[in-house]
Design goal:
Elements (H helix, E strand, L loop, with lengths): L19 H8 L4 E5 L5 E2 L14 E5 L3 E10 L12 E8 L4 E6 L12 E8 L5 E7 L3
Antiparallel strand pairs: 1-2, 1-3, 4-5, 4-7, 5-6, 7-8
Length: 140
């Protein structure tokens, strides 16, 4: 039994004008998504335009940071900052509010991973301001 993500790197993300507020919130331990003011669609990955109706009327919404694993894989080889890392989990987490987020699952043994496993967000400091939202099994 191994614990994927035990020594996972936390590379600083590329921050652009569309995502500045998102990354600032991660540094404060908050998870934001965009919501379309016209069709109410929740948007992940944050962007200015709604992919559902093409509206430019979007706003930031803080979400709970709770969800469940929708799909996952244990990676044994990484590239870039992840090259030479121990195995790590790449997953889609379906947030309780609906959007699916690509992320890492941390703080669990690979034998305990399962589709549907309830998870919660944790933030890993990058040392450059923003934090990376990752998910661990729910503790409460």
């Amino acid at each position: 039994m191994t614990t994927p993500g035990a020594a996972l790197p936390a590379p600083a993300p590329a921050v652009n004008p569309e995502t500045t507020q998102f990354w600032a919130a991660t540094a404060a331990g908050r998870l934001l998504v965009k919501r379309c003011q016209d069709c109410e669609h929740l948007i992940w990955y944050p962007r200015v335009i709604c992919p559902e109706c093409s509206s430019l009327r979007t706003e930031w919404l803080q979400v709970s940071g709770r969800g469940s694993i929708y799909s996952y894989t244990v990676n044994h080889r990484g590239e870039g900052a992840y090259q030479g890392s121990p195995p790590f989990v790449l997953a889609y987490v379906e947030l309780d509010e609906g959007p699916r987020v690509m992320t890492n699952i941390v703080e669990t043994d690979d034998a305990d991973l399962a589709v549907g496993l309830p998870v919660e967000v944790v933030f890993h400091d990058t040392g450059a301001g923003p934090a990376l939202p990752r998910f661990r099994p729910r503790r409460s």
